[in-house]
Every structure is written in structure tokens, then in C-alpha cells.
Amino acid sequence: xxxxLSVIAKCILYVISLLPWWILFRISDxxxxxLRYVVGYxxxxxxxxxxxxxxxxxxxxxxxxxxxxxxxxxxxxxETVKLFTLSSRQVFKRVEVLNAEVIxxxxxxxxxxxxxxxxxxxxxxxxxxxxxxxxxPRYIVYKPLSNKVADGMVKKMxxxxxxxxxxxxxxxxxxxxxxxxxxxxVMVSDQTPPxxxxxxxxxxxxxxTAVFLGVEKLAKITNSIVVFCDIRRLGRGRYxxxxxxxxxxxxxxxxxxxxxxxxxYLEKVIREKPExxxxxxxxxxxxxxxxxxxxx
Length: 296
Prior knowledge:
Blueprint: H1 2-17, H2 21-38, H3 43-53, H4 59-82, H5 88-94, E1 95-97, H6 100-108, E2 113-117, H7 123-133, E3 138-142, H8 148-158, E4 164-167, H9 171-177, E5 184-188, E6 201-204, E7 207-210, H10 214-222, E8 225-235, E9 238-247, H11 257-272, H12 288-294
Parallel strand pairs: 1-9, 2-5, 2-8, 3-4, 3-5
Antiparallel strand pairs: 6-7, 8-9
């Protein structure tokens, strides 16, 4: 029964994705009202996160961010549905890339690149745009979903323009096996590790934050250049990306230097326009003292 419902939902989403942008954004306007005023979607989580991240702001300032966030969340939901059928030309038009030549220059030097991004702007649409940029292998690291139908939909959407999806657990093995071939690997850096896998807490938005060390470990193992994919929202359904080089010699960095560096850059981006980050995610559900006790 669950699979039948999933297939029905898949068909509905496909039909919705065929609608023109102007209708989708009218749907988003209604969805915003439902999310904020009718169901209060994760209101407590959002308000708590904003209070933790911005204790220096007034209650009215945080309320303003919350309101803008709900509008952005509604937009990002319909934009993501649109990605199932969005043409290559439309992706090209809607995500402006300022300096792809930086990455091509590293490829000419025989170097591979790890592109770090957060749940900021439209990371899904931007990942599709990255897939169009290069002939070299493009890998997208992802966490498989438990629902097989939903997982298949997401995998198909993300790989539409030639990107190769690899699960988080297979990333190291895959990149090591193709170490001599220049490639770009895109990784979302602000996911929360399972409690049993937490190895490090970085300071992020005033909080000790459990982070994956995958970017740093992979960069050192493969000697890959680390760049931050700085995605900015230009308007509804429109984005701009600039590649910012963080580390060209990963093996010369100190322990956790790369991790702290890309976390700090994401924080800088969020502080400039906080409404475009995923505030409804329970990012700080683990504390260092809880993890320490678990290892006693």
C-alpha cells in the first residue's frame, strides 16, 4: 500500500512539474500561507534555531527572518518539483555561473575538485547546473532515502544532465579508484551525522555543531582542491554561483582546518541573507557532553 501511494504521489508531482513558473509561484503563495499560518510547519524548531543562531537580534528581527524563510521555503518546494522536468536550457538560464573557468583551470593541471555547498539557496538546481559545466566526471554525494520510490525519483532528477550519484558510504572508495582522473565532486556540508558517527564539533552560528569530516578526509586522500560553491538567490527561481577556492594544498593543512574553513564560509553566507538557509532542520539536536557520555 505504501508503494502504491508513493507511485501516485510521484505521478502527481510529475504533472505539477509541467506547470509554467507563474502558476507554480501562485501555488507557492498559497503554500506559504498554509505553512506559516495554518499548520505552523516546524514553527518551534525554526524559532529555536533562530534564537540560538542570532541571540544579538531582537525578537522582531528574528520574526522578520522567520517570515521571509517561510516564503523562501514555499518557493524552494515548488522549484524542486519543477526540476523533475525542467529543460537543460532553463537550468542554464536560471543559474548563472560566474567563474567556471577556475574549475577548468584545475582540471587542466590534472587536479580534482571537491565543491562544498550548504542547504542554502536552491542547492538542487545549482547541482544540476554544475552537471552541465564540464565534460570531466561530475559526482554528487547523496544520502539514500528509505522510501525506494522517492529515492529513485531523487536519483533520476539529480543525474539528469550526466552527474554520477554516489552514496556517502561509497564516496571514498569511488574517488580513490578514479584518483588519476580529474573530476568534480559536490558535497552538501551541513548535514547532521548520526549520533554514532559524530567525530567532531565545529563552531557554527554560535553553537557547537556536529559535522561530517568527509570533505576534509576526501580532500587529503585524493589531494583534491576544496572550493565553496557560493550560491546566491537573485529572485524567485533564479540563482548565481561563484566558486571560491578555500584550499589548494589540502595535505599541508592542520587537522580540522578544512572543516572549520568551509563551515565558517557557510556561516558568512548565512549571516548576509539568513532567510535562505534551511532553518526548519533540527541542526543542533546533539551536544558535545551527550556524545562524550555515550563513549564512557
